[in-house]
Write a structure and sequence with these properties.
0% strand, globular, repeat, 11 helices
């Protein structure tokens, strides 16, 4: 990321890698109920078509959270948290932590990176992250989507059981279900999120609107969250529907998208937009602010360790 003055120590790739994963986990802990609400709203139209019901169970993000707490208990808001944290440690570490390294790779070590280079770096790290973390994403979505049955039973009782059940019933490929739409989504998300944050922060510092500190990081992160939600929502809805679907329901993510368009209309692609924005906006703010502080803290600690006097 931009903003480090020449006199400041540049964080190492290892610091960025570990810092991004840690910051992603902290952001997930805080915003996970919003993500769960988003998943339920995105899946709602599909459930109605299956059951033939006309009643809408969830209305809005806070209505969804209230309904879930009332009918399933507060813990339901954190269904899939373990898989979510596993995902962030492997996912955020790669897509965010390796972003600067990938920029330098494409510019052959120079500091000047244009918009095309930044987009290429975002697409590359986003695709790499999916290759590592897709099974954790599948399990997270399945947990968030599952509703407690009348007898108290559940589709999956633990994260480990979910991994085993999916692998047994759907094959190892089932753990990478929705990989292509997820690669598409994360290429879009990474480009919108990281490039928007990078360029907004660069412009703020270039025109001396703010110093390289918390208000600057907050503003850049909010801009990144808003742009990301607008661009990525349609792909995100398709990804969620496809990964949660029963084996054989959709032949591909394109079939899933066409079925949604035919049965529910184009507005279906923006289902759960408000929770998506609330989640992505707040997630970006918490993650980037935390990430910047972790990078600085770890770099200073590393400097002190190498030369304490």
């Amino acid at each position: 990321m931009v903003g480090i003055k020449p006199k400041d120590a540049v964080p190492s790739a290892a610091v960025k890698f570990f810092g991004a994963g840690t910051a992603g986990c902290i952001a997930d802990l805080i915003t996970f109920p919003l993500d769960t609400a988003k998943v339920r709203l995105q899946l709602q139209g599909e459930s109605q078509k299956v059951k033939g019901a006309s009643a809408v169970k969830y209305r809005g993000v806070f209505g969804t959270i209230t309904t879930m707490v009332r009918t399933e208990g507060p813990r339901s808001l954190y269904n899939g948290l373990v898989a979510g944290l596993q995902r962030q440690m492997s996912f955020a570490s790669v897509r965010i932590g390796l972003y600067d390294s990938m920029k330098q790779f494409y510019t052959r070590g120079t500091e000047s990176a244009g918009i095309v280079t930044r987009l290429l770096a975002g697409c590359t790290t986003g695709a790499m992250a999916v290759a590592f973390a897709q099974p954790t994403d599948v399990v997270k979505v399945r947990f968030q989507a599952q509703v407690r049955l009348p007898g108290g039973g559940r589709r999956y009782n633990s994260t480990l059981e979910a991994y085993k059940t999916i692998a047994r019933d759907e094959g190892v490929r089932g753990l990478w279900k929705g990989c292509m739409p997820n690669i598409t989504r994360n290429a879009i998300v990474n480009c919108a999120e990281l490039v928007t944050y990078d360029m907004t922060k660069e412009l703020i510092l270039k025109y001396d609107l703010m110093t390289d500190n918390l208000p600057c990081h907050f503003t850049a992160a909010f801009s990144a969250g808003f742009c990301t939600t607008i661009v990525a929502s349609p792909v995100d809805v398709v990804k969620t529907r496809y990964m949660n679907s029963a084996d054989g329901k959709y032949k591909s993510s394109i079939t899933c998208a066409l079925t949604m368009l035919r049965n529910e209309g184009p507005t279906a692609f923006y289902k759960g937009f408000m929770p998506s924005f609330l989640r992505l906006g707040s997630w970006n703010i918490v993650m980037f602010v935390t990430y910047e502080q972790i990078k600085r803290g770890m770099t200073r600690g590393q400097e002190y360790w190498e030369s304490p006097f």
